[in-house]
Specification:
Blueprint: H1 2-69, H2 75-89, E1 92-93, E2 97-101, E3 107-118, H3 120-133, E4 137-146, E5 154-165
Antiparallel strand pairs: 1-3, 2-3, 3-5, 4-5
Helix pairs in contact: 2-3
Length: 167
């Protein structure tokens, strides 16, 4: 050892120690990490087509929603149908207000505020029939209040939304 120090000097011995440490670090730390990274990359490349299949399934589901909401009826047709359902169920409908909700997508939304009077059963039947006969409608909110003047009658304010595909 003394001969080595005399031949290369202290700086040379330090360099040899650092070189040995670098080789050991490379062998015991870097190579296992590189192998693990390669394994993860391989797994990721195998999963990429599965993600593409999932995206295709998602796209087909979105297309199915658009197809479901695409109906030939106009907003006025749905409003007339609501009025007819109200007459058939015995619910007294007062003047409804509706307005288009701004949207950036392909779906148009028409919010309808519909005040009505009837018994609780009549209003429930009205909503049940409306949901069955108007598939593009959602019931967003229903407020019920007893009518003080007429026993058994309920004042209702319904917020409904028509969801339609833009043409």
């Amino acid at each position: 050892m003394k001969r080595l120090i005399d031949h290369v000097g202290i700086t040379g011995v330090a360099a040899l120690v650092l070189l040995a440490a670098a080789v050991a670090f490379s062998s015991f730390v870097l190579r296992p990490l590189e192998a693990r990274g390669a394994l993860m990359q391989e797994r990721l490349s195998r999963k990429a087509p599965a993600a593409t299949e999932g995206e295709l399934r998602g796209a087909s589901k979105v297309a199915a929603v658009y197809e479901y909401l695409k109906k030939p009826e106009e907003t006025t047709d749905w409003l007339a149908k609501l009025h007819g359902i109200g007459t058939a169920t015995g619910v007294q409908l007062r003047s409804a207000t509706y307005r288009s909700q701004p949207s950036e997508g392909r779906i148009e939304r028409y919010e309808i505020v519909l005040p009505a009077t009837g018994s609780y059963g009549q209003i429930r039947d009205f909503l049940k029939r409306a949901r069955a006969e108007i598939p593009v409608m959602s019931v967003d909110q229903v407020k019920l209040a007893k009518d003080g003047a007429n026993r058994g009658l309920v004042q209702a304010e319904m917020r409904l939304t028509l969801h339609m595909v833009k043409s």
